[in-house]
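Sample A.
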Amino acid sequence: MCAGYLRLAVRRSPADTARLPEAHTPAFALIVLTLSAAAGFIGSLVGLGGGALLVPGLVLILGVDMKEAVACSLVGVVFTSSAAGMVRGRDRFTNYRVGLLLEVVAGAASVVGAVTAFLVRPTVLQFVFGVVLLGIAALSLRRFEDEDTHALPSTPWARALRLDGVEEGLGPPRVYHVQQVPLGLSIMGVAGSIAGMLGLGAGAVKVLSMDVAMKMPFRTSTVTSNFMIGATAAAGAIAFLRLGLIEPRLAGPMAEGIVPGAMLGSWQVGRKRLPLLRKVF
């Protein structure tokens, strides 16, 4: 289904597909580097991917076309995830079984979202982008720390798929049991569509899904999200590459800025207290 949807989009050539602004100067590249470094740091720190900063910055500050900003943002999200994964000590937080299970749904949905972004008008993307960010912000404000997360019982889904894990943070190791796996999979479908359509990486939705729906510890949700967003974004980025919307002159400096920022943010995750991470999120 995804392949057929992609072929349908390739046959179309919308008139409003734009190129980079003419003024592609060293100053342009410097702004992209700075913006990307900030996005990489914040994105890896709280598992968002950085697209929520990259896309508005590229469109509002640099005048990049919305579709190209979304496409290049997905490339940036891939580098955020890869750079975050290079930092030592991350494996004690990441729940790889949960990440790989959820990524099956999120990756396929990302391709559908990317093709949808190609087919609709930029103004529609901008409107949806704003609505999604407002919705994520509202959900984040309503979330509070559940002190009984580690006391929840194991579930049949989690036992069958061996999804339960151990949180190793600033305190002693604690076992946690993953809850509501089908609900988490459903939310990941929405997260994947958002990632491909808006270039966000959908880390915010993924963190909220694992933290709120699946009752995983917040720090574990953040690091597992960083592990997942790269694969989700890569699926959407491949679709955008096939559609000819990824501009190397923009993606190059973006990658150079994101990698050091994401590595620094990832290194800070295990050293920051949980309340501070929630405030940044």
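Sample B, a different protein:
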Amino acid sequence: MEQDLDLAFAYSKPLDLDEYEKAPLGQGVFGTVYSIKKKTCHMSEPQNICAGCIYCVAAVKHSRNSPDLDEEAAIHKTLRHPNIVRFYAFSNNGLYMEPCLQGSLDKFVDGMSFAKASKYMRKVMSAVMYLLDNNIAHMDLKPSNILLSNDCPKISDFGGAKRLVNGWCKLDQYTKQAAPPEVMRYVYSSGSNVLDGKSVDIWSAGITFICLLIGKYPWAFARSSCVEYKEWENENENSSLGKVLSKKSPYGLHVISSMLTQYYCNRPSAIDVLSMLLK
């Protein structure tokens, strides 16, 4: 049973997971995600955490800075979209969220048809458009950060999310395989870590689209020293990857190619991508 709640509350008492019936769902950099069911409620707990209701909770390691957790909670609790994991409450060592018990999009290791992948991506891009319209960039979109509930994809993990200022934000968190060339320039050379957040999310969504189609990341990082990326950079739709994607769908290849434009200023907007996927 999922609790439908309107407000998210701060909760200063640390989570005591011994008070919950729990099952681990996954392991992340900063902690473990559990499916939990509260055995009993105490008066000191936030009123929107109820006994008998099922939640997901990200139990955060002590190595994670409290200001980072506060910033993640401050952004996540404002979001209301059917394709974004609902935030309920947080303590100083964990976040309570809606349960998404079907795993994440990275479980499709054999890939899928263009029809199925585009169905998921339409919903993902609807959520991305909502975020960017509200001047928030996720900054770490990837299959493992998109969960499934009743076969409906929902974006999760806002640990790297940033509020945009004139479209720009500072990079704090990224995944090499899903990050665009401008992130790799910052990581490996003297590039700036102040980036166009909208373009970062479009690129990472394009990589996610590829992962759904072929079941894996297309390259280790978007830099010319990576053979797979260099071939894509030079030959694009005529590359080995392009030919694989074209067999799935020539139109899908066209959409992905536009999302993975090397120069960030030439990438389509979220609404443009969504419009292409709705054709």
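Observation for Sample B: Residues 1-10 have pLDDT under 50 and may be disordered.
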